[in-house]
Amino acid sequence: MIKITSKDNSLVKHINKLNKSSRYRKENAEFTAEGVRLCLDAFNSDAKISYLVVREDIIDKYNDIIEKLSAVSEKSFIVSEKVFKEISETKSPQGILCVIKALDKTPLFGKISIGGKFVALDNIQDPSNLGTILRTAEAVGIDGIVLSDDCCDIYSPKVVRGSMGAVFRIPFTVESSIKDFISAHKDITSYASVVSGDAEKITDVKFSDNSLLVIGNEGNGVKASTIEACDKKITIPMNGRAESLNASAAAAILIWEMVK
Q1: What mean pLDDT do residues 233-258 have?
Q2: Which residues, other chains included, contact 33 with Cβ-Cβ below 8 Å and sequence gap of 6+?
Q3: Burial class of residue 182 in the structure, from the number of CB atoms within 10 Å of its CB (0-12 exposed, 13-18 middle, 19+ buried)
């Protein structure tokens, strides 16, 4: 393993840019995963690891895991606690970080034309919401996720952490727009989730075997053009004075009803 002692090292600067910039992640087709569990999730999902970075004081504690990760990494590095703090995005760093090549999940969506339950995210902006939705979707058995290209970056460190590794396991594709995706897949029944109006209650909906549930932006909901492209509109009936739910909370209810 190569030792890095300076915060000015080119790899340290590269990791910092990956952590902070969506554009930089896209340009370099790489992202970061920090922590023992996430790095092991990447390993177990056969993600391609460009670099492994380990804090020098945790080598004995995680020796077996480090050896496993190092064996599949293109290069491995040891850093001091001071240098690791420079690249860490967590409050209590475990001392392990991987730089991972961007995942290409689009080929996994060949099954969308022959049946399955899918979720489309239309301009979701909060990384915490996106991470939670991915985690929920995987937990209940959703077959895949479709993201509009104006969603927040699925490779954001907050999304990767919030997904609890689901980003490595659940099939996903990023499309120019959900409306265009629906137009190109007429064989799938699409359901737009809306707050109110002439929409069917989610508790009364019988989802088709080949279906796409569309969840919209935190503040504005599903785009009007996307709603128009969908086959049906559905809503969560609410009592009391609540007018709407947090996007990830609404998604959890809708997704559960979709697959139950």
Answers
A1: 83
A2: 39, 41, 42, 97, 98, 100, 160
A3: buried
C-alpha to C-alpha distance for 171 and 47, rounded to whole angstroms: 13
pLDDT at 242 over 60: no
> Alpha-carbon distance 170 to 116, whole Å?
13
Give the Cα separation of 117 and 175 in Å (integer): 17
Evaluate whether 117 touches 207 at the Cβ level (below 8 Å): yes
Element (H, E) at 169: helix 166-169
Give the pLDDT confidence score for residue 227 in this predicted structure.
94
CB 105 within 8 A of CB 132: no
User: In sequence order, which residues have a C-beta less than 8 Å from that of residue 123 and are 6 or more positions away?
Assistant: 148, 150, 151, 216, 217, 220, 223
**How far apart are the C-alpha atoms of 40 and 66, rounded to whole Å?**
10
Which amino acid belongs to residue 209? D
pTM above 0.85, yes or no: yes
CB within 8 Å of 23: residues ≥ 6 apart: none
Q: How confident is the model at residue 48 (pLDDT cuts 50, 70, 90)?
A: very high
Query: Is the Cα dihedral 21, 27, 28, 29 positive or negative?
Result: positive
